[in-house]
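Could you join me in thinking about how sequence relates to backbone shape in a protein? We need material for that, and I hope you will provide a protein of your own picking. Once you have written the record down, we can walk along the chain together:

…
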Amino acid sequence: MKHSLKQLAIALAVIVAALGALFVAIAYWAVPTAEVRNESAAAVQVVAQWRNQSHDLGAIRPGQTEVFRVPGEGGITFSVTYADGRQVISPEMYYTLTTTVRAVVSEQSISVDSELGLATADQNPRNAPGQKR
């Protein structure tokens, strides 16, 4: 009898440990991710902002991608400062659990994409359809 109780206790401990590891893995996987890729010809400074928090990614070299986790859910924007001092701020992109937000910096703009949609901000103001510059 004692031997079977000991086996049952070991089996329960293994099951609890496996469930705990599974929970930790799911919690890690579910945290939203942000990726910022610099496709411009020069290094850019990037700051990500969400809710009441921000993350300064510093200088991102051409061709470099920076990846970081963003807790919770909400809206995120990216502020890009080019070497010549120009600054472009992306529209807000909504993110939720398991979402990956991808920001791509080009010479004149920053495009932000996720599984939920696409947004672009560029240096030049856009005209309404049919409106001339």
Residues 81 and 87 are 4 Å apart (CA to CA). Strands lie at 33-38, 44-50, 53-60, 65-69, 74-81, 87-89, 93-95, 100-105, 109-114, 117-122. The chain has one helix and ten strands.
